[in-house]
Give the backbone structure.
Amino acid sequence: MSVPMHERLGARIRQLSMNVAAVAHEAQMNRAFINDILRGKSRVPNLEKLTRIAAVMKVDLEWLLSGKGRVDGDDPIKEEYHNDFVAIQYAYARPSMGGGAIVEDEDRVGRDFHFRRAWIRDYLKAAPSMLRVMTVQGDSMIPTLQDGDVVLVDMTQRSTSPPGIFVLHDGMGLVAKRLEFIPMSDPPRVRIISDNQQYSTYDGTADEVNIIGRVRWYGREM
């Protein structure tokens, strides 16, 4: 099973105990270029810059591009790599399913959640760096989501087509709601729906609805 370039680069950076700032400094380039690769946003990056990154990483350019070529020392992509787990950052801000008040507990120690790397890559087709774990609160999405459920949010997916459950900022705080695009609307509008029928449906223009990302998975403590 092939490993995409952004995963190879990330694995090599971790193996060398480096960070993006250090790589960018040694390669004499902007951190944004490296971050775009790591987030899977730059699939055909500038080869001249990529060659400089390869030199800092002590690998052949071809290894970054295809996984074939020289690696100084051990190759970080071993057979068990596909079955290992990747840490997804826990976000302190809690999306509310009720009134929308944002809740932040500065004394709480956030914890990463770990998901199988192959599942993130092959099923979600997502970059781990663009995923966040959050805890929802309130009752407006019952029975789909309940107070205290944990959700995995893909921050690269902000389109409401197809419809789905999203985390958005409603002007007061983060909320988890079901969103769908209203066809033929001009300007484009989005319908904001609570699965709990005790809450009213409302809508807003696409520009007004500040979408954080699509909910891709949820977990519940029994």
Observations:
- The helical segments are 5-15, 20-27, 31-38, 47-57, 61-66, 117-124.
